[in-house]
Amino acid sequence: MSDLRTRLDAALDGYRIDHQIGEGGMAVVFLAHDLKHSRRVALKVMKPEVGASLGTERFLREIKIAAQLSHPHILPLYDSGEVDGLHYLVMPFVEEESLRDRLDRDGTVPLPEAVRLTAEIAEALAYAHSRGLIHRDVKPENVLFHSGHAAVTDFGIARQMTQGEQTRLTGTGVAVGTVAYMSPEQAVGEVELDARTDVYALGCVLYEMLEGAPPFTGGSAQAVLTRKVTGEVPEFSTDTPVPETVIAVVRQALTALPEDRYDSPIAFARALEQAITEEAIEAAAVRKARRRRRRASTMVAGIVVILATGWWLATLATAPSFSRIALLPLVNETGDSSQAFFIDGMHDALIAEMGRAGIEVIGRRSVLRYRDDDETPVRDIARELNVDAVIEGFAFRQGDSVGVRVSLVDGATEASLWSASYGATARNVIGLYRQVTAAIAEAIGFRLSTEAAQRLASAPQVDPEAYEAYLNGMYHWYRLTPQDLVQAERYFTLALKIDPDYALAHQGISFVWGARQQMGLASPAEAGPKAGSAAQRALLLDSTLAEVHLSIANQLTGTEWDWQGADVAFRRALELNPSYAEARAFYSHLLVFLGRLDEASEQADLAVAADPLNSLISALSCVALSFVGRFEDASALCDAALEADPTHPVALSGRGNVLRSSGRNEEYLQHEIASARMRQDEEYAETLEAGYRRNGIEGAFAGAAELMVARSEFGFVSPTWIADAFEDAGNHERALDWLERGEEMRDPGMPYRVTATRSPALWDHPRFQAIRRRMGLSE
Questions:
Q1: Is the separation of the CB atoms in 79 and 66 below 8 Å?
Q2: What is the CB neighbour count within 10 angstroms for residue 681?
Q3: Which residues of 490-500 are buried (b: 16+ CB within 10 A; e: fewer)?
């Protein structure tokens, strides 16, 4: 933008340009000094090329609208004009960050502050609405912080409520507005829009402040719109659980039909402020407890508070025999939302204990969809999960006491066959899990092995504070976003400060660095040693943890390329927990690398059967099946994973692998463009599009490869990603250069990259086969 800066310096009177502070698709923003009033200002200049191609109407409209608005929560207009054919406007320079900056840094905003900011934005929007204007582009980027308060900006696409404009989706985005925050009626081009379209967008912003991501995402604009129109608002899963009262308000703001939303931003804000009062939260808790009691009427009444004595109360109507069961999410009996992460951890731990005992139990993530589901009959749940019986559970934690109440329900008849209550001190919570597991085994007619029975009969004590930190860490790790991995590491580190010999916390550290390495968030040189040393430390402390053996197996596979050692570690993990779906899914990848394709296919199928609704398992199995040539099955698994979580990084990678391996080049390119935009990498997406316009598929990936090469000079970029792009560009020599670099740094993507290629010529190249030999893989 040096030419633009030069033109401004020469033609603009009254302002001294300092430096560029921002850039969007339409304009560039400079920090400038207002010479007349001796103040710093933000000078926004329309890009000449944009004016030449699209005209200046939108920019001039923004100036006209901004001049009409004067409100404490709307950024005012100081000045505007045109010099040397350049249109500009002048606004206050806000030294503080935008809401987008805040979310990128912190992930979420605490509930009280999020409510306050929502109310301030609502006031600004209501003021604009009173003057007949709707904003149409409410999003975190357009909310600035000024003295700690919200200031709405960028009215460039605002419209009179009586003035219509067709707003249509394109293949990769929208013509006007931002699809992630846009109301369904605005996205499909409704002519008559009113205040409720801004209410919807503000609801999306509030959701993201509380959750850390927009409510609706997808691989394309059309996919996002489909989810907005047909899908329910996703569940909240933040570290500080959102009250049911607030969830209800957000859901009403985000309903697909405008007539079902709040009539105005002020009505929305008032409902939100009421929802966080103690009276509203308490009343909602009472109503929810009544609903729970109605559903649990067949269970033993009341929870039996039991401590470490092991006293328990149970009834067993028959002596059933079930081979495959599901433990539904535990209901938080106390209603204390601050304990939600602990109750989730208890659920996860019970499933793990049952798996270690040899019980065939469905994985945790597949049953999470039934949380707070009082409507789906048990027989439907059993059919969807392909299980014989379902266990419903209630849990509590109060002071130093923890307890759980479980009930066994026949999946075919819905008869309640057995129920029992157990309790312990927090220090003896592992013993509680094992006691419950032994009782469930007896109730379903499962015969424990001698080794499993001995294990369940004894249990180590834990430090309650260290255990709580560990559960918090696992809560964040399961979400697998860069921000959550940071939080997870902090909690695992806290647990180790409390108890340096806590094996599970060391294992958690290994999981974090393993995930960063696999996701390309850290170089193998940084992540590998940290993941490996933490896993080895956990192994020394407790060699019976299947999770530890999985972590070691993944390290041996991804960076050590010790194929035999990895095979032993995977098999040991599955011996310790035959229901460990993650171990089976990752094991299928090792088997692919070794050319044992029938075994790989079998392990992928077993992984999905063990945890059929788990997006991660579906995505990992998709990758394996794409390598063995089962493209239709692989595609179905990735579609299922992305339907549950459209931003799932492994599922997105898996879908790309299916498209790439099956030669669907155009679809693969569009998938890569959409994925780049989903991770907010507009430069990468535009590079692919520009290259495609110049020289088709090869041009697209040639540009992408060179962009990644340039980025690698300033930070870590996986060499295998660059090699992929050069191969897709038809430049095999450059692809081999980067594969050799990946080999040198032991990039975890290398086993995948040298297992299959799109080009037979590259596969047959002597340098390629030499890499495989050095990695210990057969030709």
A1: no
A2: 13
A3: ebbebbbebbe
Report the candidate in 273, 309, 258, 554 with the shortest Cα–Cα distance to residue 428.
309
Strands (E) in 342-478, as ranges, are 389-398, 401-410, 416-425
Contact 588, 554 (CB under 8 A): no
Same domain, yes or no: 22 and 160: no
Q: Which domain holds residue 737?
A: 663-779
Radius of gyration (Cα) for the chain, nearest Å? 28
How crowded is residue 482: how many other Cβ atoms within 10 Å of its Cβ?
12
- Dihedral (CA of 486, 491, 492, 494) sign: positive
- Compute the distance between CA of residue 106 and CA of residue 605 in angstroms, rounded to an integer: 39
Determine what percent of the chain falls in helix, strand and coil, rounding each to the nearest 5. 55, 10, 30
**Token pair for 577:** 């927990």
Are both 56 and 144 inside the same structural domain? Answer: no
Count the alpha carbons within 13 Å of 411 in the hemisphere toward its beta carbon: 21
- Give the dihedral sign, CA 170/171/177/182: positive
Strand partners, 17: 32
Task: Give the pTM.
Answer: 0.56
H helical segments located in 524-648: 524-541, 546-555, 563-576, 581-593, 597-610, 615-627, 631-644
Note whether 205 and 302 are same-domain residues.
no
CB atoms within 10 A of CB 546: 21
Answer yes or no: do 769 and 740 share one domain. yes
Q: Which of 426, 345, 417 is nearest to 388 (CA)?
A: 417
| pLDDT at 27 (0 to 100) | 78
Q: How many Cα neighbours within 13 Å face the side chain of 351?
A: 30
- What phi and psi values does residue 715 have, to the nearest 5 degrees? -170, 175
Per-residue model confidence as pLDDT tens digits over 733-753: 999 999 999 999 888 889 999
Beta-bridged to residue 64, according to DSSP, are none
28-37, 213-222, 550-559, 770-779: lowest mean pLDDT where?
Answer: 213-222
CA distance 120 to 602: 56
For residues 214 and 386, give the distance between their C-alpha atoms in angstroms, rounded to a whole number: 33
**Within 10 Å of residue 174's Cβ, how many Cβ atoms?**
18
**Span 670-728, pLDDT tens digits:** 999 998 888 788 899 999 999 999 999 999 999 999 999 998 887 888 899 999 999 99
**Number of structural domains found in the chain:** 4
HSE-CB at 602 with a 13 A cutoff on CA atoms is: 5
Q: Closest Cα partner for 389 from 445, 306, 307?
A: 445
Q: Which of 92, 118, 142 delimits the end of a domain?
A: 92
Q: Does some domain include residue 751?
A: yes
Tokens of 285: 């808790």
For the domain that residue 215 is a member of, what is the CATH number?
1.10.510.10
Phi, psi values for residue 422, rounded to 5°: -140, 155
With respect to residue 395, please indicate whether it lies within any of the assigned structural domains.
yes
Residue 104 shares a structural domain with residue 248: yes
Rama region for 236: left / alpha / beta (φ>0; ψ in -120 to 50; rest): beta
